[in-house]
Amino acid sequence: MSDKLKVAVVGCGGIANGKHLPALHRLSTVDLVAFCDIEEHKAHEAAGKFGVPGASVYADYQSLLTNAKPDVVHVCTPNDSHAPITIAALEAGAHVMSEKPMAKRAADARAMLEASKRTGKKLSVGYQSRFRADSQILKKMINGGELGEIYMAKGHAVRRRAVPTWGVFLDADKQGGGPLIDIGTHALDLTLWMMNNYEIESVSGSVFRKLADRENAANAWGSWDPKIYTVEDSAFGFIKMKNGASIFLESSWALNERQPSEANCTLYGTEGGADFKNGLTINGEKHGVLYENKIQTGGSGVAFYEAKQERPEFLEAEMWINAILNDTDPVVTPEQALVVSEVLDAIYESSATGKTITF
């Protein structure tokens, strides 16, 4: 009998095959034992590629939970189904990693957190930007006090023309929103984590749908269909923290911006600043002069040798599974992910009502 953790994956589409399954498959501490997708052939394909011999396949996640009895479940489905699947898996005795965002709406995310506490099972959310080499290095520098007090930040999630035209990305009912909840969520999570500040005072936001109705628009993945494009194309938020610190969040799939930036942030501290433009750079003042330090996060710079650099999704999976095995908190806690969802909700609400949302 194997002493490895039995892992099941619900939703065998792009994010599962591109991120979760390759990362889990390489770990010696887990067995991928069950796969589920409403399009059952996708589950069969994933099982054949990543599963252990005899891995089971389902079109219904309730049947998977009942029959496979996994130790861990990864939820890789559209946003509107994160909460019901996660809560069912937690109540069935499994630890859960849900794809981002935590849920379609903050109320659902709150129910997920409550289920985790009630069952005593671990819950985490797939914010892999925290696990990039540059993010990990900057976090250590911040923890060491190198930026001092971070009192202003910007979260960047801006594409010039890269609207995802597949799946349900453009479906407001399934996703709950467009670029804000899709890629803005990564930038906001990264920014809050770097600041180590989750105490929100107020949020104001503006949401736009200015380019979505254009026919035959230039786009990285081919022109979109305006008839099914029911979400925003840009959203912006101003977040004020209880200690007075502020964050400006920008997100867009289609914006007339010459220098797009995604899943990044710019930080302004009393002792220095940091940004990810063309690589991680720290700036500050010492001995009466200004300085900029480019931080090397890749190879060694030595000819014929490159230092090992873990892919972020590999490190994410490894640290998540280790948290279960060692009974420690995951790097991304559900409490942190809930705050992200609450802010996203508040930006949408503020734009719709014209009011600042107070927490």
Written description of the protein model:
With 359 residues, this protein is of the alpha/beta class. It folds into 2 domains: 5-126, NAD(P)-binding Rossmann-like Domain (Rossmann fold); 130-312 and 340-358, Dihydrodipicolinate Reductase, domain 2 (2-Layer Sandwich). It is built from 10 helices and 15 strands. The protein has helices spanning 14-25, 40-50, 61-68, 82-91, 106-119, 133-143, 172-175, 179-195, 312-326, 334-353; strands at residues 5-10, 30-36, 56-58, 72-75, 95-99, 123-126, 150-158, 200-208, 234-241, 246-252, 261-269, 273-275, 281-286, 289-294, 357-358. The chain has a 9-stranded mixed sheet. It is globular, with a radius of gyration of 21 Å.
Give a brief description.
This protein is an alpha/beta fold and 359 residues long. It is built from ten helices and 15 strands.
Helix and strand run? EHEHEHEHEHEHEHHEEEEEEEHHE
Question: Can you name the CATH architecture of the largest domain?
Answer: 2-Layer Sandwich
Instruction: Tell me the span between the first and last alpha carbons.
Output: 50 Å
Annotated CATH homologous superfamily of the largest domain: Dihydrodipicolinate Reductase, domain 2
Task: Give the radius of gyration.
Answer: 21 Å
Query: Which of globular, elongated, flat, extended, rod-shaped describes the shape?
Result: globular
- Please write the CATH class name of the largest domain: Alpha Beta
